[in-house]
Amino acid sequence: MKHPTKSYKIIEIIQFLSLDVVLGSVSTGYFIVKLLNITPNPMWWIVLPVSVWVIYSTDHILDSFKKRGKAIIERHNFYYHYKDLLITFTTLSAIIVFVLSVLYLDKQIVTGGIILLLLIIVYFGAINMFGNNIRNNTPKEIIIAIIYTTGIIMGPLIWYNGIPPYHIIFIILVILVLAWAEGIMISWFDFDDDICDGYCSFSTAYGKENTRSFLIGLHAIVEVSILIYLFSIEISDITFALIILFIMNMLLGLIIMFPNNNFFKKNYRLTGEGVFVLPALAMFI
């Protein structure tokens, strides 16, 4: 195995391995569980984060082979240099998740997970078969946001065993939009690197200025929608949940509104992905 000449900081390794994303998925999962007032199968707390890690790692591994260790994006170089170890660990993790799911989780969750996995395989297969045609017409930020959100809410909704209240549906939609917006925001900051490495993103497909304008407008719509909802209901647990979403959206909006801020410029990915840890505040509901 060829090792990179560059040494990495711990925070870089955490980000490269998407461990901050994994933490965010657990926090958001807890948020949904708390709002639905259900008790999930304890094994779900293992299956959820490991599944998210497997999906993100697989995506990074596939991307890393395009430049074979000579990418501008350092995450791809990291995955390529350590490909043997990461492929092995990702494969073993996927097998463990599958076994644990079959043995301990409801059949509906296993079936839903398999369907989601097949859709992911079809999408990645289409990208490899049709290349930029698919990438340009379906930037993967929205696909990743749908997969991320679906994977988190699937189990809780099945255990809820019914159609959730409209306020829960609203909250889920906001989480989906925020996950999408965060992915687009990352692509905006990575615009030059993506162009150099030949990767397609929302930003490279629609232009950097158009992307920023779109994000500012999207965050404004989400912020106004949450405010309208907040002022139309009585104070309750949902109020605190909406305030959490309001803060998440505000932080993501501030990053793209002030991209030249030194802190945001250096820590846009850490801040953006760290926003999804805030739902853990639901423990105070």
Describe the SSE topology.
Elements: H1 10-16, H2 19-36, H3 44-67, H4 74-81, H5 83-104, H6 107-130, H7 132-137, H8 140-160, H9 166-189, H10 191-197, H11 202-206, H12 208-231, H13 237-257, H14 262-274
Structural features, described:
With 285 residues, this protein is mainly alpha-helical. It has one domain: Farnesyl Diphosphate Synthase. Helix content is 79%, strand content 0%. The mean pLDDT is 91.
Keywords:
285 residues; Farnesyl Diphosphate Synthase; mainly alpha; 0% strand
Task: Give a quick rundown of the structure.
The chain is mainly alpha-helical and 285 residues long. The protein has helices spanning 10-16, 19-36, 44-67, 74-81, 83-104, 107-130, 132-137, 140-160, 166-189, 191-197, 202-206, 208-231, 237-257, 262-274. The protein is built from 14 helices and no strands.
- Total number of helical segments? 14
Which architecture per CATH? Orthogonal Bundle
Number of strands: 0
Mean pLDDT across the residues is: 91
Approximate helicity band: over 70%
SS content category: mainly alpha
How large a portion of the residues is in β-strands, by DSSP E?
under 5%
Taken in chain order, the helices and strands follow as: HHHHHHHHHHHHHH
Cα distance spanning the termini: 49 Å
Low-pLDDT residue spans: none
Tell me the Rg in angstroms: 19 Å
Question: What would you call the shape?
Answer: globular
Look up the CATH topology. Farnesyl Diphosphate Synthase
Q: How many structural domains does the protein architecture include?
A: 1
CATH class equals Mainly Alpha
What kind of sheet is the major sheet?
Answer: none
